[in-house]
From TrEMBL:
It comes from the Bacteria. It is a multi-pass membrane protein. The lineage of its organism: Bacteria, Pseudomonadati, Bacteroidota, Sphingobacteriia, Sphingobacteriales. This is Protein involved in gliding motility GldF. The chain crosses the membrane at residues 12-37, 49-73, 94-118, 138-157, 164-181, 219-237. The keyword Ribosomal protein does not apply. One of its GO terms (molecular function) is ABC-type transporter activity. Keywords: Cell membrane, Membrane, Transmembrane, Transmembrane helix. Residues 51-176 form the ABC-2 type transporter transmembrane domain. InterPro entries: ABC-2_transporter_component (IPR051449), ABC2_TM (IPR013525), Motility-assoc_ABC_perm_GldF (IPR019860).
Length: 242
């Protein structure tokens, strides 16, 4: 499994697509946080990163599918997945190796954003006047959100040979799971349905963790979400073998 993980990670790092995608993500986030008047931190007047953690999920909807779209789609298109499947590896080992390789790249995209925390901390009066607990909780929520979107991207890549289609399917599923259930909870205003749809919403659990409180229900939700989509990927891969 480690050999597949290392091969997949090096393959991602050797492709220009990964660097271009991460570069666009960081450039867009930097422009939104420091230059655009409606979202600029300097115009907000408070030493906090609420804007960053509100905008990051929407950029994740495009960043992560761009990273994961080649995972299975490219291997199937080029025929190299047959060679991979004939090795003494289980389907779960292959899926998890590709999943962790993509997630590590998402983590690499998040690490440079720590400079935003340092900058806001230094600009605050007095210096360091920023809620570190809330920021830590928000970063944990962002990591869990990235893990969930990565699972969706891996699943989308397994259902088609076309990377563009895999990207489009992943973006659609990320948007539906993040905002779709919230919208449905407002449409079905009855209390039972509203609570049910909110319980299924990724955004609801992400916002809960972003408040700085780690609830086991939120952690169980994200773990279950990842397992669900990786399980669906296993069904697709296993069914195609048969």
């Amino acid at each position: 499994m480690y050999a597949v993980f290392k091969r997949e990670l090096f393959s991602l790092l050797n492709s220009m697509m990964a660097y271009i995608t991460i570069g666009i993500f960081l450039l867009a986030m930097g422009l939104l946080l420091w230059f655009f008047p409606d979202t600029a931190i300097l115009d907000y007047g408070y030493a906090e990163l609420t804007v960053f953690f509100s905008l990051a999920p929407f950029l994740f909807m495009f960043l992560i599918p761009a990273i994961t779209m080649r995972s299975f789609a490219e291997e199937r298109r080029e025929g190299t997945y047959i060679l991979l499947a004939t090795r003494p590896l289980t389907d779960w080992q292959i899926i998890l190796a590709k999943y962790w390789a993509c997630f590590v790249l998402v983590l690499c995209a998040l690490i440079p954003t720590l400079i935003y925390y340092y900058s806001v901390s230094q600009l605050g009066l007095p210096q360091g006047n920023i809620d570190g607990g809330a920021v830590t909780g928000s970063y944990i929520g962002l990591l869990l959100l990235g893990a969930a979107f990565t699972a969706i991207g891996i699943f989308a890549s397994s259902v088609t040979k076309n990377q563009v289609i895999a990207f489009a399917v992943a973006v659609f599923l990320c948007f539906i799971t993040y905002r779709g259930f919230d919208a449905m909870s407002q449409i079905f205003a009855l209390q039972y349905f509203e609570a049910a749809f909110l319980a299924l919403s990724v955004n609801e659990h992400y916002q809960s963790i972003s408040r700085g409180v780690l609830d086991t229900r939120d952690l169980v939700y994200f773990v279950s979400f990842v397992v669900l989509f990786l399980g669906l990927t296993r069904l697709v891969i296993g069914g195609r073998k048969w």
